[in-house]
Structure formats: C-alpha cells, structure tokens
Request: fold
Amino acid sequence: MKIAVISDIHGNVAALDAVLADAATRQITLIVNLGDICSGGLFPRETADRLMPLELPTIRGNHERQLTNLPRDRMGLSDRHAAGTLLPQQLAWLAALPPTMRPSNDVLLVHGTPDSDLTYFLETVTHEGLREATREEAEQRAGRADAAVILCGHTHLQRVMTLDDGRMIVNPGSVGLPAYGDDRPYTHLVESGSPHARYAVLSKESDGWAAELLTVDYDWEQAARDAEANGRLDWARALRTGRV
Reply:
C-alpha cells in the first residue's frame, strides 16, 4: 500500500496540479489530504473545483474551521479572500470535513495534533523562535493515539519522527505555501528554504511503514505574480524563495 499525503495547499492550484501529476507516476494506492485547502492569496474556488470531484479522504485544518465559523470581520486576509470567492457548495464541503480520520486501522490523519488543529506537532515555538520538537514533546502531543502512523500538517515543514514506542509522526510539508510568519504563541518564522511544492509518500513494507519526503517543481514565478495581482506581496516573496 502506498499513500500520497498532501497538506496545506492554501489555494495554490498550480502547485496542487504538479503534486497530483507527480503522484500519478508513483503507483499510489490512495491520496489523503490533511487540510488548510483553499485559504490563501491565490485561487480558492479553483482549488475546491479541482479537489471535490476526486473525493479524497480529507480532514479540515484550522483555516477550514475559521472560514466556516468566524464572522467575516474577524477573519484574516487569507480566510477573507476565500470566503469572498468560494461558492456556497464549496463552503458546505469544507464545513462538513471531519477534524481527524483513519483511512486504515494503523494510520491517523490530523492537522495539528490529535487534540488541536493549531498546536505544532514536530516543532516548538519559544521566545527565541521556532525549533524542532524534542521526542518527549512529540510524545506528549501524540497522547494515547493508537495509530502506527500519525500524519500531520499545519507547520508546512517536512519532518519525520519515530517515537520511543515505535509510532511514526510524518509531516509532508506544504503543497502550496513554503514559508509564513506567525505571532502565536510568540512571533516566529516558518521557512522551508525553497519554493518547491511538497508532499510525502507513505509505504507499507514487510517490516512496517516507511515515509519518503518529496519536492516538486512547478511555475512558482507565475504563482508569485498571481499573488501580487491579489495584493499579497508577502505571499509573492514566500512563493518565490521559500523565505518570509
């Protein structure tokens, strides 16, 4: 069994198309989507149009929750752009997504952690910025989730960690946004360092699961120009460079 894992598309339909095309060359059994699908500085409606007919196992991220629950005047720029662009049936699709899912008995999909769509799983934010989480921190965040593999997104950074009890945590990185800044709980930058689209392939081997972290070329210069046309200069720099 081979599972392609996508996350954090953020309305970047060109990056999504590139990832789906790459996955089509790899004898994939199943594609799963970990959320933060449409909100961003690019093409929310087109992204939903691309994904909805595929009927992939999909969970909601924090942006789906915010987009479908917050009043417009409390939304950030990315959610507000999506809210003003998406069709009613697309918003209904996003609103109906579950927070977690098991596509198989030993694989669990979460956006942040099993208990939160905002908590970073494999990274930790301190007063000094972002750092990789310790194994003890990751074990605490995993809690009693009994899956052999927990797939998480949210931080846009590709990372794999195996806990002491053998559970493997995999973040496939972001399909559509390689860098961002945030101020929760402290100001920090998240930077992948290159403009590539990212995803992962999870393979069931005779001795357990293995994860491959992949990067994919696409026309990120055009995506950056599209972001500029939408007034998102912050997105344009991130899309071109993988830096904030």
Notes: The longest helix spans residues 13-23.
